[in-house]
Amino acid sequence: AASGKEATASKEDKKKLEEEVSSLKFTVEKLESERDFYFGKLREVELICQRNDGAEAAALIDNITRVLYAEDPAPTHA
Question: Which pLDDT does position 2 carry in this prediction?
Answer without folding.
Answer: 54
